[in-house]
Amino acid sequence: MTDELKIRINKFLSEVGYCSRRKADILIDQGRIKINGEIAVMGQKIIGNETIEINGRKVQIGKKKNVYIAFNKPIGIVCTTDQKREKNNIIDYINYPSRIFPIGRLDKPSEGLIFLTNDGDIVNKILRANNHHEKEYHVEVSKPITKEFIKEMGEGVPVLETVTQKCFVKQTGKKTFKIILTQGLNRQIRRMCEYFDYRVVALKRVRIMNIKLDIPVGEYRDFTAEELNQINQSVQNSIKTFKHKN
Questions:
Q1: Are 87 and 100 within 8 A, CB to CB?
Q2: Alpha-helix residue ranges (DSSP H) falling in the chain
Q3: CA-to-CA distance for 238 and 57, rounded, in angstroms?
Q4: pTM for the full model?
Q5: Rounded CA separation 187/199 (Å)
Q6: Lower CB density within 10 Å: C or N end of the chain?
Q7: Domains and CATH numbers, the chain
């Protein structure tokens, strides 16, 4: 599991209401906390399903409520959980009351829909490229679009030592088009446009899978029960990239 999906033991104990972070640090320093039978060390990170013992007694932790939200990311916000190194990070911006992390990324100059959750399983299932989950974008470029540009964008473009998968591309205005991708290469649309000597002026993600962007910039909402059910159905056959140990 990536470090982004883990949490420091002191923060975890604080979030589940056992004790404050300061108190947890004192307990760790005194060697009174064990994780899966081993004495915890300061700054240690966990998944959240480990066996935690304090003073020889197992900590009883209630079942975590899964959170699934859709957020309309503004331009300038960075999709990282690194709150120390990036002041404009998505976590501080949303300021959600419990620990969540983004599913995938949307680069800093872009805006639009991104999911956030505390459910590591669904993150990995959605991000697997071979699951072919659609993401739709509205794009504005720096000069008038040609028919050749639209055609060649849809047929696959050489970027990052590979060729992008075929995709749906449709012109919507003199300098605008929409594109639907099922893969997520780094800065993919911008790189595809640059290959044909076009510069992206504005890029907005308006749909991920079955969920459309329907909230103002900078705001978020919970998935509806129907939306979550549809997503779970679409990823139910996905193979996880990691497995939790029971």
A1: no
A2: 9-15, 21-29, 90-94, 120-127, 147-155, 188-195, 225-235
A3: 37
A4: 0.75
A5: 12
A6: C
A7: 3-58 (3.10.290.10), 68-128+211-235 (3.30.70.580), 134-208 (3.30.70.1560)
H or E segment to which residue 114 belongs: strand 111-117
Backbone angles phi, psi at 72, to 5 degrees: -95, 95
Contact predicate 4/81, CB 8 Å: yes
Residue range 137-184, pLDDT digits in tens: 999 999 999 999 999 999 999 999 999 999 999 999 999 999 999 988
* Cα 128-160-186 angle, rounded to 5 deg: 50
> Residue 106 has which token pair?
């949307």
The residue to which tokens 């079942």 are assigned: 63
Kindly list the catalytic residues. Answer: 107
Q: How far apart are CA 17 and CA 48, in angstroms?
A: 14
Write down the pLDDT at residue 242. 38
The first and second tokens of residue 104, run together, are 């995938």
Residue 192 CB contacts under 8 Å (≥ 6 apart), including other chains: 153, 157, 159, 164
Decide if 24 contacts 33 (C-beta within 8 A).
yes
DSSP notation for 148-214 = HHHHHHHH--EETTEEPPP-EEEE-SSSEEEEEES---TTHHHHHHHHTT--EEEEEEEEETTEE--
